[in-house]
Each structure stands twice: as C-alpha cells, then as structure tokens.
Amino acid sequence: MCKYIASKLTLLSKMLIMDISVAAAVLILSVGLAARYSIDTMENGLIDNLFNVAQLLANNQEVKVDLAAGRLSPKLEKYLDAALANLRDIDVISIADLNSSRLYHPDKTLIGKKFVGGDEGPALSGQNYHSKAVGTLGYQNRYFYPVYNDQGSQIGFVHVSMLMTNLDALRSGVLGVHLKTLALGFVVFTILLVFLSTSIKRSLLGYEPAQIVKIFLQRQEVIDSLEEGLLAIDDKGSIILVNSAAQKILDLGARPFLGEDVDVISPGLKLKESLSGSKAYNINLVIDQVNAIYDKLPLNSRGRLVGALAIIRDRSELTRMAESLTGFNHLLDALRANTHEFKNQLHVILGLLRGREYAEAERYIVQNGQSEGEALTTIANNIENRTLGALVLGKINQCHELGARMNLSSESKIPRHSRFLSTKSLITIVGNLVGNALEAIVEAERQRAPELADEAPREISLLIHEDDKALIITVDDTGVGCSAEEIAQMTVPGYTTKGQGHGQGLSLIRAVVDAAKGQMTIDSEKGVGTTMELVFREPRNRRGDISQGEGP
After folding, report:
1. What's the distance, CA 274 to chain centroid?
2. Which residues in 196-244 belong to E strands, given as ranges?
3. Residue-wise pLDDT tens digits, 397-432
C-alpha cells in the first residue's frame, strides 16, 4: 500500500514530505538540545546563587555571634525575613547549630526543632556542598555551608534552598519558549521548502524522476550505440560523459571514469586545449594497435563555456594499412637497391671475365667484399632486428647507387625487440632520417659548381645504439645544411624545400619522438651538413606508440 501511494506522489509532494520530515527532525533535535542546554545553564546558575547566599550568610558576623549565643536576635531574624522576600530564587533559609537544631526558619513554628532531610551530615563535619532532599516544606534543591567562629571552630551551618516545584515552573517556562521557537521555525521552514521544491521542479522542466530516468537511459543507449566515441569534460577538465565506443577505442576498460581528470585517463587527447574555445578537426591519435582520428570542440551553454567534447572515430584498420605501407615502402626501396647493386656488380664481373681480366675480376670481388664486409658484419652481429637490418643494408646500397657513402658505426647495436620503440617506429625514423640525409647530399651536389663536384664529400654516418638506459639514433650528413629559420620550421607538417609531395618526413619523426617522450636535437650549418640525434630514455608501454604516414 505504501509503495502504491509513493508511486502516485508527484516530485513536489515527495520532496515536500521528505524535506518537511528532515526539517522537523532537525528542528526538534536542535531545539531539544538548546532547551536542555538552557535548563542546565539555568540550574547551574541557581546552584551558584544558592552557594553565594549560603556563603554570604555563613560569613556574616551577626550570624556567627547569634549562633554562638544559641539564639538569633530580632534584628537578624527581620533581616533574614526581608532577604527571603526579596530573593526571587530562594525559598528557604535555615540556620542550625551542631546539634541540627534550627535557630532560624521561615516557618517560625519550626525554630528549635531538628533539621529535616537527612543530608546535613557532611555540613556538620565542615563541608559545603549541593544536594537534593525532601525537607519540611517539600522536595528542595539545597546548598549547605558550615559556620565557624573567630577562633576557627565550627559552631553550626547555613542551609539555603529552592523548592523543586518552583524549579519545575522555571523549567517549564524555558521549555515553553523553545517550543514556541520550534513551532515558528517549522512554519518558516515549511514555507521555504515549498518555494524550494517548486523552484527545483521548474528547473527540471516539470519532469518527474521516473521520466528523467527513462529519458537518461534512452539517450545513454543511443550514445552507446554510436560507432563514434564521445568523451566530454566540464570546464575543470573532469570527465562528464564517455560512451562505450570511446572506452573501446581509447582502451579504457569498463570501469567508470566520471569525475576523473581527462589528462590522467587519456593524456593523448589534450582535450583541455578546447577549454580555451579553440576547435580542431581530424587529429591523428594512435593508442596500442588502434589508430583513431578525432575532433575536439568546446561546449557552450547560453554563451558560456561549460566544457569540451571529443568525437573519436576508429580508423585502426586504415592506420594499420598506412603503417604497413610506410614500413614496406622503406623495405621495398631497400630490396630494390640491393637487387640493383647486385646486378651492377654481376655485370662488372661478367665484363671482366669476358675480357679475360681474371686478376682484375678477382681484385674487384675482393675489394667489394671488403668495402661491404664491415657494414654487413655490424648488421649481422649487432642489428638483431632483421627488418631494421634489411632497411639499413638497402639504404647503404641506395647511397652507393647515388654516389654517396653510408657508414654504419661499429658501435651500433639494437636487440630484436627494442625497449623504447616498435619496429614500425624504428623504420619510420631511420628510413626518413637517412632518406632526408641522402636528398640533402644530392641537393648539395646539384648546387655545387661542376669543377668542385669531385672534391666535395658525400657521406652519411649512422649510429643506432640501445642499452638498458636509452636508445640513441644519430644521422650525420655532408649535405646542403639548413639555416636556423629552416630548422625552426622543419617539424611543421607540409613544410619542405623540395617541392610538391614532400615535407612529411620530419613531422612523422616528431610525432614518434613526442609519443615516446624522446628528445630530438638538430645541428646544421649551411653548406656543411646536418647532424640529427634522437634519444629515447622512457621504456614504451605500448599505449602511446605512434608510427604514422609514409617516408619521404
């Protein structure tokens, strides 16, 4: 029955019932505590008042003199009667000797009789204290104080009390004031809660909770059914929405992320940049084996920036194809160069043999074997990554074809699986670096005067070395060189001095370096050459490895 009634109540009714119940409980508790505190404070004040009066009388010289004489003078009796009449919170004053015989009492018929209550014992032994007991006039709130003569000997005690009936009346008065406060507060709270509940319902556009839940679930189903990933943040950078597609594309797992900082969950998105109002489209993002393209947009409400939204599209298959093509392009160049160089050597040997120049043929074979032997030995022994080794060998032959010499440092060494970069990233970097260096040498040769062409060095030096601490890749060439302005523009996508269709190599290298948190140093001089050094010190976690696009 209660569930049925609850289901029929509107949001306003439920909120009013709940809020009024809470307000009533809070008011009752607070007013009850306040009343308890006020009553305790009042009672403590009354006890202090009883103590002050008892102490004052016990130290009064006339009281001491009369108590020592065994009877009170009319003057003192009149003084005590007047004090009782004027003291609002004092109902009884008694003065008794050490035999508990009263020398003074408001009821004159009780003077000379024994003190009643049974709680006067400690006062006869010199103690002052507070107690509650039933006296001749009823239940009393009492205070006792011993009386001493001038020689320091106790001669009696003073008793001051207030009837508990009068104390109860005071309590009722205090409680009544608090009850009135409670009633007034309840009325005020009820009026405020009615206005608050009405305002809340108006802000919810008149929807009931069940309708809001239904709409939320429907929209969540629509959002989760999208192939595009949606990730939204508020103006502080905390995640407020992430759909299933975004969790899958970004490889976030199934745990909830609402309220967490987006830079901690997915730093590669750099979504906080859109909180400045900027927009960006078709940004490449590679996470593990998933390649994504995403847009990031600011979110505005009534002209005010309230957050940012990332729309993420999974392009993993296309990216894998592009990455595969990038690697194969370099490897195909290497295979072509190897095949071409091998054919050239065979043609030379065949010509020498047909001319019966056997000694020259032998010398040629030995010479070529020695010139390539050092590089082949380094590749075979130190470059354990065979794909990278094939690329380096191909680049050596490609340089030879173009009249340049490529020296592979004997200190080069890299394991089969690098701790710092994937094979695709290694091929992207080495292929583009050596390719750019070779093009710089060709351009330098084109710019030189013909009479100086034979004297100009045409060399490329390559070092690839990895140990437990770092991966270092260095390429040094004797090419055309670059100015400081050109170096500053080198990593801008599309910038090139080589014409249409070029200009992506260095931007691809920069993407790998940034993703792997590496360092890239460019040292170049016009007409002398260029040295590029890449250092990677942070082991890859297989979640931010970028290898995009094709080589030059």
Report:
1. 19
2. 229-234, 239-242
3. 778 777 788 888 888 899 988 889 888 888 888 888
State which amino acid sits at residue 304.
Answer: R
pLDDT tens-digit series, residues 342-391 = 666 676 677 777 777 777 766 766 666 554 556 677 777 888 888 888 88
Expressed as residue numbers, the domain containing 115 is 14-170
Tens of pLDDT, residue by residue over 501-540, are 444 667 778 888 888 889 999 988 888 889 999 999 988 7
Tally of structural domains, the chain: 3
Crossing angle of helices 11-58 and 164-203, in 10° steps, is: 150
Q: Which of 296, 314, 332 is the last residue of a domain?
A: 314
User: Which of 13, 6, 12 lies closest to 199, judged by CA?
Assistant: 12
CB neighbour list of residue 280: distance below 8 Å, 6 or more residues apart: 273, 274, 295, 296
User: Where do the DSSP E strands lie in 502-543?
Assistant: 519-525, 529-536
Q: What are the tokens at 180?
A: 């009135």
Strand partners, 93: 160
Within 10 angstroms of residue 194's Cβ, the number of other Cβ atoms is 15
Residues 261 and 326 both lie in one domain: no
- The SS3 call for residue 338 is helix
Taking a C-beta distance cutoff of 8 angstroms, is the pair 362, 422 a contact?
A: no
Shared domain for 248 and 331, answered yes or no, is no
| 338, 483: one domain | yes
